[in-house]
Amino acid sequence: MAAKYTPAPRTGDDSKQKPVRLQTFSGANGLDEEAQRHTDDEGDVDGQTANSTQDKPKLETDLRNLFFDDGKRRIDFILAWTIDHKRPETARQARQVFEENLIKEGLELEYDTRGRDVNFVKVHAPFDVLKRYADILKLRMPMKMILAEQHMKEKYSDWEEDDFGLIVNRTRTSNNNVASKTPLPSVGARLWNNTIQLVRKFMVPFHYDETVLPTVSRSYSCPYSSSREYLFEIPENKDEYFSKAIRSWIVDYILRRQSFNVSNSKTFSFGIKKMLSDGFYSAAYPLHEGHWKAGSANNARKVLFDHWANWTNCLKFQPIDYIRFYFGEKIALYFAWLGFYTLMLVPATVVGLAVFFYGLGIMSTNIASKELCDPHNNITMCPLCDARCPYWKLSDACSHAKASRIFDNGATVFFAIFMSLWGTLFLEFWKRKEATIQYKWDLTTFVQEEEPPRPEYLSKLENWQIFKMNPVTGIQEPHLPFWKRRFPIFLASYSIMLFLAAIAVTAVIGVIAYRVSMLAALQLIPQHVSSNSTVVATTAGLIYENASLVTTVTAALINLAIIIILNVIYGHLAFWLTDWECLRTQSEYDNSITIKLFALQFVNYFCSIFYIAFFKGQFVGRPGKYRTIFGGRQEECEAGGCLIELCIQLAIIMVGKQLIQNNFIEIVVPKLIKLVKRKCSKETREQKLAKTPWEKDYILAPAESMSLFYEYLEMVLQFGFLTIFCAAFPLAPLFALLNNIVEIRVDANKFTTHLRRPLAEKSANIGIWYSVLYGISRIAIISNAFIIALTSEFIPRLVYTSRYSPDESLSGYINFTMAYFNTSDFAPSDRPKDIHLGVISMCRYKDFRNPPWEDPEYRRSTAFWHVLAARLAFVVVFENVVVVITSLISWLIPDVPTILKEQIHREAYITNEIVLKTELRRAQGEDLNSLGGAHLSDENLRYSPHHSEDIELKKRSPSTGKSKSGSQIYI
Fold first, then answer.
1. What sequence ranges are listed for the domain Anoctamin transmembrane (predicted)?
2. Distance of CA 43 to the CA centre of its chain
3. For 634-662, what is the mean pLDDT?
4. CA gyration radius for the chain?
5. What crossing angle do the helices spanning 410-440 and 862-892 adopt, rounded to 10°?
6. What DSSP letter does each residue of 862-905 carry, written as one string?
7. CB-hemisphere CA count at 13 Å for 721?
8. Would residue 571 be called left, alpha or beta, if left means φ above 0 and alpha means ψ between -120 and 50 degrees?
9. Which of 436 and 579 is assigned the larger pLDDT?
10. Cis before residue 856, ω within 30 degrees of 0?
11. Looking at residue 52, what is its pLDDT?
């Protein structure tokens, strides 16, 4: 039914009701009888006590000692320090000056110095300070609902939502008062809306519990102005107006700008980061809201753990809005991106599984595989190495060839094209999703503030004599001349990076040498093992029959071990090189370390895979005239092709990386460290219970600025595995999906339970990582084109069926791909010593060359040039077609949804109108304070179905401001 806009009825004192800004949650609000059995190393529930029989739920801020000793002023930040025995007086004076400046700025401090190793300063920001900085920083804050209601009633009373979620204008005729809707929904619009509704019904089981975490709607907002305070809904308890995340963010803003030096001789002796860097403070952090353990009283942290970080929610969507409320926009945006990426993996997984099962279906029915496995063909192959390796039968490679057909078939081309389009769609849809998030979180007009110099930068240049005025701040800052100082450092830094990359290449060459020698060694097994039926002989025979597979798997495992070791080395060296470059701001530092670590890890992970995909078996030569490197023959692909080896290498490195790094390092290692700490701890239970919340948070691991960097890097490398080599491994999306389901909960658990509460930083996008993802998606198009053309058998099979096959089938294809070699042309030193197959006069090898009876012998045949031309033509066509299609998709899909653009413009217009009309009423002497408490329900506030991210918002009672579950929500 179409719902016409009408104001909500108000009775009694509802119009004076204030919106609740503090989050409370339904359910138990105190300690139950199990609480004492659910304690951890940090004590039970922060020493709190609660009465589970209370009828009135307690506010979350009552569940933990988050206040000064007076119980009224909230702790917004904690500064911790230890005694500096090297320079105690210098540190004390610096802290004293810094804290005096904080007090001058309006902050209130309270000390906890009870003679322990660590001392604490509790920081509280009064409402006047928060209000002043909200005005300075132009924070967008919610406007009074009654103002928006009155304006919408005047301007949008004829607008309504139809049965299909469209906003239409109702015009009534003067004769029969019959309503007509314009425009009329088309068949396509009806079909699209029905599809959306069907998908939403299918997704219902995967939604989190909305009775505990109700849907959050977006309200009208505008930049805060203390001179226009009447525009904003300020509750009676003014400390509840600004959320905890905003409070800590403002306090951090103040901390970063206060000086700690008495004299002005050191211009850059300011900021909490510089004090942390100099060791004057040991930590600075906001407090967690409560305890997360089972049996603890309800609080925001516990609810996030129970309904997000807990493993029982691994198949549920994430409450992104509540993550934002607790951790801030930057961390919430990462989880929103990771969740969106994981969701986009579902269709890729379905298609990949379909391609895999298709390969399984044709594995044994393929004509070429049957010919290769038929022992009656009696094809004798040339030795795989000189002198020591014997002749062998082509049918010995039967299992290898069958396995190769699972991944090397016609569906491979389709999957490569699909994944190229999938990568583009993922990036384009993410930009739209990001635009929606920016609008909902008031980040559309967010501009990063001017960054101060890094403390490390200032420390290194403390005695520098060259200064230059900052054009933004007007402050004289140390300046490093580009050509005299920066260029030589950058040149040396990136030269070292090239050397580090060369180490990864050298490691690959070492693995290649291992493969060659290992394969040669396994070929000698029949000479040293008797043909009896002992277990040793049976095992040796099995290894001999699968010599290539054993060599490939062991080489891949060795390569994985080398990759993990090199990653540790690369991580330390990349930070050392970036520190050496002495970059001014944190953004410059982050971008530089991102480029270095990504480039080094990209080379480290993908070097061996690129070798197998594009170089192995391409420049081998022929029997009697093999090309050598360092005196040894190059590796060559077996009869089944190199694609199966590429698949094995990719699977071991990708899955092994995820198991070792994601599961072992991120899950097992922290638990082992915690277990060791528990065993080594000498604290009694009473001592643990006596600790204050800031002491308990202090012993948690610090939430460093690089925490998200490694999470993004891990996922971006995974994206590279998925897209660059998707033609070789259609199961990659499945393993990525399973890994990401685990990864979301591991990261959520880490931020909720193992780290101090991070600063609620603002960020409007994922930064440089989008450009990296875009670059990978472009590389993937080229890579997959060459994999299909050079590594797979798709092009030779296509040429054979269309040009050489008498019946346009693959019958005779194996013989077509095999060239002849006269064994008498072997050099005496290269002839096989093992002649258990008898005297062989003619052997075969995989290549397109003339037989020895044609002139010129062993030269490239006509078929070779046909296949080469087809391969090059395929690369050109594939790349251009896919690039054109992906570019067309990027052009057709706007970065910002059209209806969202309209909504943004409409809101800007409405907000401006509200301000103008309210200012006019103020100028006319109307009492605006009477508008203070009224607010609207979501039903009446929502004049557009796209007023929030979701069309179907959770309905709340207009009289209480609560959800159906009785839970209050805040924005």
1. 323-907
2. 33
3. 80
4. 34
5. 20
6. HHHHHHHHHHHHHHHHHHHHHHHHHHHHHHHS-SS-HHHHHHHH
7. 33
8. alpha
9. 436
10. yes
11. 33
